[in-house]
Amino acid sequence: MSSSTASWTDREWTRGGVGTSAFRCGTDDDYTSRSASRFLSGTLAGTDLDSVATVEGVDVTKTGTTGATVDPVTAPEITSDRTTAAFGNPLDVGLLGDVLGLNLTGLGVGLPAGSAGAVNQIAKSSATGESTAAAGLVNNSGGLLVTDSTPTDQLPEPASLDVGQALPAISGITDVGLEVGAVGSTAQLDGCGLLEDQIWGAATGARNEIGSVAIARTATTVAAAPAPHVVRNYGIASLDLRVDSPLVGSLVQSVNNTIGTLDQSVTALAGTNGLLSQAIQQNIVGALTNGLGLGTVSGTVAVDGAKLAPALTPVLTQPLTDGTLTVDLATGTVRVDLAHLLGDDAKGLNDLPPNTEIVLDAALLNDLTARLGTLLDTWTERVVTLLTTLLQDLTIKIALNVNLNLLGVPLVQLNIRMDSGVHALMAGRSSLTVGTTLLGLNLGLLTGVVSALVAGLVNGLPAVILSTLTTNLLTPASTLGSTLAGIVRPLLTAVGSVLSFLPGLLSLTVNVQEERPGARDGTAVRTGTYSVAALRIQLLSAMVSGSLARIDLASSAVGPAQVNLRPALDIV
Fold it and tell me: Per the omega criterion (within 30 degrees of 0), is the bond before 560 cis?
């Protein structure tokens, strides 16, 4: 074997990772960090809400230990020291009124004790890279005060967005609104920890990229899973669709009109000269023969029982509800609990994944119309049944003395007595009695006539009394059902028309999370920007193309956190 004199160069490569010296999170104070919160942003009726001074948010940037920049400069300071700056800019909803179709004033009513307001806005940034932002029903420390378990009595009234502006005119509908209860969001960023993980890999040997520079580190130990360096949360107390219709008020008014008529009839039936007394006298006159005539009538006729209006008041004022759909008879509104209809039965719109779009399904909304019909039909039946029962529970008390005359001479007095309920009369169980009292001479041949008359009265008067009660009380009550049905039908049509527009009219997104990536610029590295909004509403127009509203409620953003790298060289 011959030897070779050939040779070559052996070039071995090592990779230099441009890294940093160890991060001293919580100690290093040369970070620039930003936080911002804004309760209301987007556009309404073509107006950029960022340009509306009355709903301005708060933005805080802290640069090392040299100071902080805050926008607006008038934002009240919460706390400030060498490394931390926190500012708040809570909105006074009492001064806001209606902001281009969004009325926030309800959020100022019924606030929980100790809260800074339902439209609080805070931003906190530190020189050590941490930042916190919170908006809505939150405390000054960034704590969220609205969750699915927050008691109703600790929440304010809702805000209202005018949806009717996007709808064509609908007969029987005066207004349509989207009512948003208290909302809140919070965002927290540990910028130092995040950058450390992005550069070194979270103690797992993972390789990460910031900008275009790859940096690697070999893990020597396996640590427990680190706490997340970006935490975002939100809460929505309620979300309702409100439909105002005068037809709801017409239902109540129709019942009240019937009650008024029946109350007048009860009054007219009673008394010596009332309708019942007249009917009894007419029946006696028709039965008289042989020249007997009516003389004088004395005594009383009373109709006793519960007053109709007070007894029916609860039925006419208490809201009708199946848990999701509610008809408020007192205010004339139909309300749909969208939070529980479209979200979770227990948690509503809370605890949903990021960027969850709420789908307004046409079939589901159509089903609401049917459920509304069932709710109103059940109420109608209840009203008519209760009214009929009240009338049948009335007691008729008769104590009439009717004098019978012959040629102007009083001979006999008929003593008519009865104390019976209407229900007993209807069942043929009358307590009616007719007695006779001799007033004049011996009746002689007229005795048989009087006896026959008395027997006829005992047998026939209950039917006369019941007929009078039926004409004046029971029949008007029974026709109330058809009257109410004549109002329910157009109400269902009107509400159904509103619901049919919603799938193409309203877009809802919950837990809106967005972020911009971090980057490297020379020796400076910065995290991304991370934001969360509790609710995004987009309102389209059914009449013209384009969006009438696209608003974000309770938006919080943290980052970027930026720091200059201290050069070091790791050979791997």
Answer: yes
